[in-house]
Amino acid sequence: MNATDSESENFLPVLTHAALSDVGLRRANNQDALAVVLAPNEEGWRRRGHLFLVADGMGAHAAGELASKLAAETVPHLYAKSRTDSPAEAIGQAIVDANTRIHEQGEANSDFHGMGTTCSTLLLLPEGAIVAHVGDSRVYRLRGDHLEQLTADHSLYWEVSAAAQARDASVPDYVPKNIITRSLGPKPTVEVDLEGPFPLLKGDLFLLCSDGLTGPVTDEEMAALLRCLPPAEAVQSLVDLANLKGGPDNITVVIAQVGEVDTELSPTAEGDSASPAISQRGWIWLTGSLAVLLGLLAVVAWYLSYKNLALIAFLVDIFAWASTVSQYMTQTPSGSSPDMRERWGEGPYRHVDARPTAQLAKRFAEIAAQVREAAHEEHHDRDWQDCHRWHAAAEQAYQRGKFQDAVREYARIISCVMAHVREKGSS
């Protein structure tokens, strides 16, 4: 198990991040890997931004562990070395090249033959967030009241769900959830999905995770914990919840939360009114209207025998129409920025309301009660004063309808008990 939590204030944006990887309850070794590479200075931020990566390895014995480790080491290295000016092209090519290396190593050793790994990468850049993705490890964004899934799973289950335009509950039970349709390593070539750029807003929180989290934990539960807890507490709470729900797989969670954003560098964020595209459309409307008026003036002047005025109005009218057509042909698509030369992908693909409900708070209350009861039955002797205080605060918040506060306190009870269980287990 490893965890990190740090905050950088050397340059914009201020960024708080935390990461945690856990073996789970049913696996002998951890085949997940992660990488967090922060830009060392402002020039590095402007050129390559911050990089976050989660990889979930697949393969017998140590093969999956090796594949994910290679992805976590190779992708950031190749991305940093790339000479292309486009971060999206650089990260895409880095993943393609990492696939080649993993495949070649698998082919060279029979023990590693067919090994593979997912690879989900997030770049936070002045122009926004860019996601590069292969497999079923996911990237989410929490903004305000909504948790959005920015990646589409490369899995049989997701493809059946997408083809039927169905939610998870509508997909037949016989469709397996663990069959991956795309990964790094098994084949000599791979297709990488690019998503974004997604403009950054202060407070945006990004989550990268392996399916050890998304399998047992629902999007609504993840959204509630991300909204209620700071990143360092949230990563631990998410891992604890996945383990309490069986911990069937390795669990890896990476969270990055954006603070202040450099408004001179970042494109206008979604939902803002001062969109560059709106100003351009206004210019098109202005020049178009002027062209129509000049045309009318030319006709009226010619009819009244003011031929010189008619000629001048006609010539200026041609210029106005030319300007209108030129602006129309080169306008920036609605909702984007002139700095965004391209827009990749179709994400977000799914979203849930992140506001905790009474039902969700009750669910966390039941889990907290179960872990406390189990700890007492196992005669775990310790001072539970903090847990009693959190429980009282949670009950009071629930009665007042403050379900976000209730979920936060129940989550802290769960993590407190789980930390004590881990301590006892390792002693």
Can you tell me the CATH superfamily of the largest domain? PPM-type phosphatase domain
Distance between the termini: 16 Å
Strand order of the largest sheet: 1-2-12-11-8-9-13
CATH topology of the largest domain: Phosphatase 2c, domain 1
Supply the CATH class of the largest domain: Alpha Beta
Share of residues in strands: 15-25%
Number of strands: 13
Write the SSE topology.
Elements: E1 2-8, E2 15-22, E3 32-37, H1 42-47, E4 50-58, H2 63-81, H3 87-108, E5 116-117, E6 119-125, E7 128-134, E8 138-143, E9 146-149, H4 156-163, E10 193-198, E11 205-209, H5 211-214, H6 219-228, H7 231-244, E12 251-258, H8 276-303, H9 307-329, E13 350-353, H10 358-377, H11 385-399, H12 403-426
Antiparallel strand pairs: 1-2, 2-12, 3-4, 4-5, 4-6, 6-7, 7-10, 8-9, 8-11, 9-13, 11-12
Question: What does this protein structure show overall?
Answer:
It is a single chain. The protein has 427 residues and is of the alpha+beta class. 45% of the residues lie in helices and 19% in strands. It is built from twelve helices and 13 strands. The strands form two sheets. A seven-stranded antiparallel sheet has the order 1-2-12-11-8-9-13. Strands 3, 4, 5, 6, 7 and 10 form a six-stranded antiparallel sheet that branches. Mean pLDDT is 85; it is low at 268-280 and 332-340.
